[in-house]
Each structure stands twice: as C-alpha cells, then as structure tokens.
Amino acid sequence: MNICGLCLVAGGYILGSVSPSYIFYRKKRGGDIREAGDGNPGAANVAASFGSAPGFIIAFLDYCKGIIPVFAARMLGVGDFYLILTGIATVAGHDYSIFLKFKGGKGTMTSLGVLSFFLPFETVLAFSAWLLLHFGLKTRFIGAVITFLLVPFFTWLISCRLVGEPLYYILLPLGILALFLTRMTENIGSFFKKS
C-alpha cells in the first residue's frame, strides 16, 4: 500500500471539495449560491450573478484546482495508478463536496484541469469540438457532454494505439465521464424533453 499515493487521493478530494464560487458568493452576498440562479455552484452561475470577469476568475480557479493534485502526484512520482485515482477523486470532490454536504457543482472546469494535465493533446482536440458545438448549437452543456465523450476515444486512439501508452490510461477520462454524466442527467433529460 502506497501511503503517499493514498494521501494524494485524499488530498485531491479535499481540495476538489473547496468551492471558489460558493466562497465568493458567500462573501459578496452572504447567501448560498446553490439557492441563486441555476442552483449550480460554478463559474457560470457566478457570471450570471456578477458578470463575466468574476465568472472567468472562478472558472480559472476551478481549472487550477484540477491541475494541482495531479501535478503533485506526478512530481512525487507515485505512479500512474495513484495519479489517475487522484484526478478522479479531485473531480468527485468538486461534484460531491464534503464542505457542502456532498452537493457540489458539475465539475466541468475541474475535469478539464485534470484531463489537460494528464492528456493534454486529447483534451485540446476534444475542447476544440466543444467550442464548435457551443457556437453552433448554442447549448453549452451538450457541447460539454460530447467533449467528455470524445476524450476517452481520443485517448484510446492517440495515446494507446498510436503512442503505445498502457490501455489503463483510458480509465481517467472514463471515470471523469461517468462523474460528469451523473451530474448532468437532469440537464440532459430537460434537453431531450424540449427537442
């Protein structure tokens, strides 16, 4: 058992549980961001309440929150197994925050932070598709769903098949995809009901 690896996984979850949007909203308005706007403690809800600049800052903090634990895992050399677990735990912390009674955000930017560190090329390709779909469909979350579906495919195609990385590399984007779909079921259901 790798104690350092387990500490990183736990640390990733705890850091992921820290919600910049919740803290910002609490400081500015003294309330709970989950009771405002769309009810999601994330950058989009901050932007809707305070403008694009604060929303961008929160998005950046959530993105960095995804990078920091996996970067620490890489620097400490715990190996890919614990790095993957740390990345998934960080996103799980954002989605099911221990500080917010396990009611967190959707995890989009934190997921992108984790993925862009571990799978930079595949994430850039998938994110490019997201941008095209966002401006084409004018629906942010559908573009995000397709992005997180594409990252495992690009990982299998590029990292595993072309580069020759181990097949277990796909576990990180698949784990993040599972978390993302779990948090987006209501949005997806509403979208198809309107279609």
From TrEMBL:
TM region(s), chain numbering: 44-64, 71-92, 112-133, 140-159, 166-185
Record keyword Cell inner membrane present: no
Keywords, ordered alphabetically: Acyltransferase, Cell membrane, Lipid biosynthesis, Lipid metabolism, Membrane, Phospholipid biosynthesis, Phospholipid metabolism, Transferase, Transmembrane, Transmembrane helix
GO MF annotation terms: acyl-phosphate glycerol-3-phosphate acyltransferase activity
Protein family (similarity comment): Belongs to the PlsY family.
Assembly: Probably interacts with PlsX.
Name used for this protein in its record: Glycerol-3-phosphate acyltransferase
Organism field: Candidatus Desantisbacteria bacterium CG_4_10_14_0_8_um_filter_48_22
Organism phylogeny: Bacteria, Candidatus Desantisiibacteriota
